[in-house]
Amino acid sequence: MNEILKAIKGRRSVRAYEAKKVPWEILNSIIDAGNNAPSGMNSQPWRFVVVEDDELHNKMMNAAIPNAKTLLGPLKTANPERYQSIMKRYEELEDPIYYSAPAIIFVIGKGPHADYSCPLACENIMLAAYSLGLGSCWVQFGSFVTGNAEIKNALELKEDEKVFGPIIVGYPKGVTNPPQKKGPVIKWL
After folding, report:
1. What is the pTM of this model?
2. Which of 9, 110, 175, 184 pairs as cysteine with 161 (C-beta 3.0–4.6 A)?
């Protein structure tokens, strides 16, 4: 099978990581892959912030948890089983937001092409991580930290910028089984 198709089919969202730092050279290669994503009008409307500092990591997790729980509130009545499953994870895991990953890559974008272009950079990052033997996961709840002035300052987040990551990256602990995928909906014309 073609190497790119193998990577697309083999990549998984990893939520358990070894306590081992990812070398800077590898992280730089992964970010370079993100930087080489296509973008509207070749605008490259992104920048990348890598968080490896444990103290900042913990502050971000503690800032994200209450926001994530608030956003999960409607799930309590819409899908009680799913809600209970997620809340159990919040109680059991030391880090239910970033899953104790050693690196968090924030993809931050601005401008008219960011909403369409930055997700492409995120996907390139995750495929590159997989191709280099690392696990990754896009963690939307991890972006709910922008209400905290200290974190906003650490990310150097401007008013006209938006967080498209974060993507957690690290050496996977164990094997992540593939989820059941629905077949594609295709209409041939």
Report:
1. 0.94
2. 110
